[in-house]
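Put briefly, the fold is written as integer tokens. The lines below illustrate.
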Amino acid sequence: MIEQFALDIGNKQTKMVSEKTSDVFPSYYLLKQDLGSSLTLIGQQRLIDSYESNIDPDFTYAWGKEIAQVSTDKYIDTISFDNRYRTNEFKLLVDFSLANLAKDYPAAKMSILECTVATGVPSSDYHDEAIRDIITAIKGDHNVRLNGESLNIRVKEVFVIQQPIGTIYNELLDSNGYIENESFLDENVVVVDIGGGTLLIDTLKSLNLDEKQSGQRDNGAYDLFERIKNLAKQKGIRGLTEYKIEQIVRRGNSESGYSYQPNKNECIDLTEIILTAQKIYTREVINTINTTLKDKSQIDTALFTGGGPNVLNSDELKQVFKNSYLVEDSETATVRGYFKYLRALQQQQESDAAE
């Protein structure tokens, strides 16, 4: 049986989906030797794991959901402005991601796990060279040791999808790949994807990209986190990092409030700071959208997705975009759309075979 995996390897986060699991990890890792005193984290709760890849057999790496909690300046980042998909750092992250999904399948440990992979890129990267580089990085055999256990993965086929299409697939299709919201097939939809470092705005007419009403900007969610950190410093609050702020923002809300606990004896209320910064950032996002879209009157739906919509002020959005919709579980919406696309292909293939 050929399994189905979906990957969304962004500059800030890597999102992974299979039939058995869904994970979101940071898009950076460490040499295991650089963990230092944090070595005890390996294997304790499986939130940081060790990885060895056959494409770089001389080194063991550390990666996992809580890798950002390690205090170090030696992170290996996968951000690259030129030829990102050709870099060794990106290829290693592909190996680690596949291994993280494959570990749930006995075939990967006993023989070779065969799978198809759906992944995606921003619309600006959707060209022949980038697609070819991504397929080269993912397709084929991968041998990875995860916490000392050898996993063998064979990627038979790779599908590369534009990110906004993945978001719409998530809304269009049900979990089995069947169409459940037909309106998206004919609507003019704006997909606003708020990542950590970038803000992607894509307009699609009947699932076709309108490049004249699309664009990429650099004011991602980390602009908000930086503003919160600076406002906190002005009030004498120290010790906050962008990572800590991100966790605080995601855990809290306007009703229950936002708090920072620097130690077990102290709890600092950040509600006023975060709500103020949120409102300012939302207005910046609205201004960016307004300058990108030439004609908002023909837009049927505006979908806000990515890791960032949870940080927007929905009341501010609704005042400007009456038809706006914050995608549910927006952090993983796009990668879930990739996975649903694979399910839809499977349904079509089974239907064709039955005829």
User: Anything to note?
Assistant: The mean pLDDT is 91. The CA atoms of residues 164 and 191 lie 6 Å apart. The longest strand covers residues 149-162.
